[in-house]
Design goal:
3 domains, N-(1-d-carboxylethyl)-l-norvaline Dehydrogenase, domain 2, 8-stranded mixed β-sheet, 19 strands, Rossmann fold, alpha/beta, about 700 residues, 2-enoyl-CoA Hydratase, Chain A, domain 1
Amino acid sequence: MKNLIQYRCEDSLALIGLSCAPVNALGQALREQLLEACERAAADPGVKALVLHGEGLVFSAGADIAEFGSAASFARPDLPSLLVRLSELDKPLIAAIGGLALGGGLELALACGYRVAEAGARLGLPEIKLGLLPGAGGTQRLPRLIGAEAALEMIVSGQPITAQRALELGLIERVAPDANSLLDTARSVALELIARQAPAHPAWPQANPGAGVPANYFADYRAANLGRWKGQSAPQRVVTAIEAACSLPLAEGLAREGELFKEAEASSESEALRHVFFAEREVGKLPGLDAGTPIRPISRVAVIGAGTMGGGIAMNFANAGMAVTLLELKADALARGLELIGKNYQASVQRGKLTAAQVDERLALIHGTLDYADIADADLVIEAVFESLPIKQQVFRTLDEVCKAGAILASNTSTLDVDAIAAVTRRPQDVVGLHFFSPANVMRLLEVVRGTATAPDVLATTLKIAKRIGKIPVVSGVCFGFIGNRMLEPYSREAHRLLLEGATPAQVDKVLTGLGLAMGVLAMHDLAGIDVSFLVRESRRDLIAHDQGYCKLADALYGLGRFGQKTSSGYYLYEGRERKDDPQVLALAEQIAGELGIQRRAISDQEIHDRCVLMLVNEGIQLLDEGIAQRSSDIDLVWNNGYGFPAWRGGPLHYAEGLGLAQVLQRIGHYREALGAYGEMWFQPAALLERLVASGQARIERI
């Protein structure tokens, strides 16, 4: 068996170094060896105290997530039992926290009697991000250390805290100046404890964590947060566990926590979030790319277009410490763009996200220009001009003339044919699509569109750069709308058609937000701009001319100048941020339905769910079958990170797997028959879906 623990004695101290690269995940093998080392130290009369630390690694990033949902998760010694045993040792046990102590790693530290951390360490219990709660004592020991209210906030947020904040809360005893001095600090603490014959485990500072909690605190906390949780069960289980810490002895509280953890681990919510976790780690793995694929050096970046999108893209690079040149053709447009960037950064200062000094550093990296000659040496150029193929092609003709050989030329198009853009250059191998989502400096998703001629090293380089600027890069093939916007079309189509058949905007959106989406599709159109989607339809009327009845309402709103939030009216009326129903929209829908001969009726919430969501799913399956998307999990990531589909449902295709693929196919077939000619036209199940069901497959993958 591989040695995962480094054990050495120094005078009266046992130094136990965790050595399981890369992050000391607490898998079964490491747990077993850790227990053996601690028992060895406990039995050695020459050892008076133990120091746990990461042997040239972080302390521990937590449990081995690959074990979740499997027998290995509770294989002996399971983590809860291990930590109970460590808490029973009769010698002081000091956790020396370097780098990270997250999840089970922090729970390991909490089971120790004493804790020190280096100044750069981060400590947290992020289990809630996987639909779980701490299951190895975190919900019981942390409240006894820092109080119930502080513990609840820390666990529900899932966000790590700094070593300094941990010191302020009483979570650690001392902060070492840096990682190099951490072990010396831990040794000093251990020797001090030995010298004063300190107890192995001091009394809990908050032995009765419920004593200072206001009456009805937990009921009020639940009521205040239910809307934000949108049906997620993990936060509610956390509250229940903290309540247990306030009302039960430690041993009983640990048992209750264990029950709640097992419930959470078996939930569809946690399964979905673990699906997303692994999807993010698979997303960059593509045929034809490997560790040997060369990466082009990128040190100079340029962005063409200083509008809202171009400015946001430039901010991404400045935020990552990369210089970027922002090019515009008109001085006033450039000035407006730079001013908007400055305002965005100032808003971050006001929210406490950045300091004024950090803003100055980032602004100094953004240089404006009106001259293409200033970007001649750029290694990566991203075009972010108006969404028009002729306009973008003209920009690329110019870039082809101006830019140096080997420069990567990228288009921030949301729908257009990247191959048609590349075709106007003499270097189509250097052209790639980089579809940023608005606001570009905030949204994590980046669709990387691989053209027919895009070179492997161009693709590999853009994937690496995307991660450097904090994006989740999902590779798409070339088609209208790529992954996200192509799937948006049938999803949006059904919402619009349902309005003509008798549903209201509020009813449609309520069904979708009830599923956990950040906002309904009609509210989303109001936010994005009804004029924007109108112009996209105008550019391709010839391709959708066989039935545009479903978009007549959207076209009518455009004709009335109702562009959404920007004009205070769209599918809804807006007073500031408040959204209200508008009888005029309902009347307009009824009028158009009459003109088209559509029979209006009461629409059930189930029908809204099925028609919007299953058509979204069906299009995603079709994309997978066509090879536009590499994996179904890639499609899920696009919709989680670009369109507000709830990660705790895993994404639309993972959600469909939970519904059952046979059920999805059956419901599509039902509406194909029930909706007459409209159903015949639009409710055609993807061929891959039919093949999957016929073969009895439960997972969505190419066959």
